[in-house]
Amino acid sequence: MIREAVAKNFKLKVEPSDQTISGVGSCNKACLGEVICDVRVGRNTLWPQVKLYVVDDTMISLDGIFGRNPMNQRCSEIAYNTLSKTLFFKNKSGWARVPYICAPSRDTFDAKNEEHKVLNLSKGTDQLAYIQRIKEELGPDINTTNVSQAYQIARLMRKHQMVFCSEDRPIGQFTEYRASIPTIEGRSAFMHQYKLPIKYEDKVTDEVQRLKKMGVLTKCKNNLGFNTPLGCVPKSDGKARLILNFKNTVNRILTEEDTFCVPDLQSESMLNPNMKYLATLDIRAGYWNIPIKKEHQHKFSVMWKSENLQFTRLPFGLKTSGSIFSRALAHSLETVKHKNCLKIYIDDLLVFSDDFKIFHDTIDQVLACLNTFGFVVAGNKVFALHERVKWLGRIITPQGTIADPGNANAFRKMEAPKTYKGLQSLLGAMNWLRMYAAAREDENVGSKSFSHVIKPISALLKTNKPGQKLAWTRDADHALQVIKERLTSETMIFHPDWSLPFTLTSDASKYAMGYALTQCVGGRTRIVRVNSKTLNDAQTRYSATEREALGV
Prior knowledge:
- This protein is α+β, with helices and mostly antiparallel strands.
- The chain contains 15 helices and 26 strands.
- The protein has a five-stranded mixed sheet with strand order 10-19-14-18-17. Strands 6-7-8-9 form a four-stranded antiparallel sheet, with helices on both faces.
- Strand 4 (33-41) and strand 5 form a beta hairpin.
- The longest helix is centred in the middle third of the chain and has 17 residues, at 198-214.
- The radius of gyration is 30 Å and the shape is globular.
């Protein structure tokens, strides 16, 4: 249909019509007439003899509306990209690319998207064009070394396109239940909002407005004595990430804590060998997919710019958030058939198999389950059929895992800490990479273990106090350089081959004990698992024999 003003502007001949219109500000209202004309779509696509109904200018704010029926009659396939606001129409001649806007009263065309293009299709490139279009529209990065397999995965993404986040649906909403956060009856927890650095205030305000727009934050009518101060950390894109420290507020008065076990990081990184089909998925905005019961939302009250707000979704920082989210996600995926081909760590998913059909079917089931239970997937964080995929800060390959080069390089650039908090951050970063900075195949697993090497650094936690200047030592600096040197080489922790025997080697030094689980493959020793532990004060006084026995 088109507005009367458009018909007059183009001097179209309006014929009488008995057609009635409903759903656009009217109910069974007679149209003013009908016109038959050619409609050009894009630059080279022409729809001949299209019947358009003319309506009063007050009925619609747009110049015209094309319904599903005429499009489907003239197009063999219709696609869209909500991020770039572009429609794609496929007919016999190829694909027509047409930009669009959602609200003419406030939106204007972006100059870079104004150009209409026709993407001609030719035999042999159709599948590649389809895969590329899926990446442009939904975001998944699919390796095209095997075009046929990549095309099948791309079709899966199209089949489940509603599970991917979009401008209209930036976060999901778990549909099965709402999170309950019980606290001690009659008790509340309140902390005043502290002042943030001026350079972050505008960024925090922008982030608060964004969360209000998404419905994550809403106005709080009565916080009933609850308040948690807002904090922030800068993001790589220049924006701010909100942080809430519930340690001194809600976490103190929780009564029923969800004890669903969050998976072990090292276990979830261990696969069977030769899993040549790999794919990673990421749940968009993680915890915010879980709604909170309305009667508990006031417990997550915050104050910003004289406005009292509350979280309607599960916030980051709550002691039980990880368990609540993990339980909901596990519940959503419990019907997946090949669970042995799926790893889950909080909001990160890894699908793997040595059989393409099982791999394909598992992705199909996972996406279907996520959509059914209201989760959304970040399309730009989906990677499939690559030989190596990044997952949980490490690189997963069919043979084993290595440290993510980005994380390793960032650690090598770290300088000696100057504060107690900086020392804690350093130890946290080191612990994340500990497997790849541990003893090598030909080294003593006791005296060269990770825990032994970093002992001079971890000992500073006892000799220094928060809020005071950190006394960094020469031994600690030497230990830091040793760890950095170990991370310069690409150390692989291999996946275990359950058909071969294992060798367990353990040892202990004066300060730590460690072990290495290895296998001999092709005459070469491979480390399958390695770890270590610092001895406490009493254990350091054991004899050498007792320490070695303790290591076993």
